[in-house]
Design a protein that fits this description.
The chain is an alpha+beta fold. The chain has one domain (6-142): Thiol Ester Dehydrase, Chain A (Roll), CATH 3.10.129. The chain is 15% helix and 41% strand. It is built from two helices and six strands, in the order H-E-E-H-E-E-E-E. Strands 1-2-4-5-6-3 form a six-stranded antiparallel beta sheet, with helices on one face.
């Protein structure tokens, strides 16, 4: 059973369709880690051009989905309520498999370091238990203005 559905996710992070890339949060330890789920549908807008004859979810969007899961984990803490987590760096990104329509993408991000408004997350995406992408994500928390 999901810990958060789309409505609750949108109360924490500012992303909206078509750029909200997570459907649910399945597990969460506020400020420490979260596991999200994305049910990849053939109707995703990026599939129209990536690639029409062989739809594949762009790797950068998998990384973005991992970052959104991490943002839910960190921004769920009361001291960061109403803030936005911005990318500061992406390190060691590796893509190990394709994500295609019909896949259920599991997204896990663990916050491994926080110093003030800067933090680092270790992130991995899986389909059917197999790693399809992983990266170290650095974020900076700021106001949306």
């Amino acid at each position: 059973m999901s810990v958060m559905k789309t409505k609750e996710i949108m109360e924490i992070i500012p992303h909206r369709q078509p750029f909200l890339l997570i459907d649910t949060i399945e597990e969460m330890e506020e400020g420490k880690r979260a596991v999200g789920k994305k049910c990849v549908s053939y109707n995703e807008p990026f599939f129209a051009g990536h690639f029409p004859q062989e739809p594949v979810m762009p790797g950068v969007l998998i990384i973005e989905a991992l970052a959104q899961v991490g943002a839910v984990a960190i921004l769920s803490q009361p001291e960061w309520k109403g803030k936005t987590a911005y990318f500061a760096a992406i390190k060691e990104a590796k893509f190990k498999g394709k994500v295609v329509p019909g896949d259920v993408l599991m997204l896990e991000t663990e916050i491994i370091k926080v110093k003030g408004p800067i933090g680092v997350g270790s992130a991995k995406a899986t389909v059917d238990g197999k790693v399809v992408a992983q990266a170290e994500l650095t974020f900076a928390i700021g106001s949306a203005q």
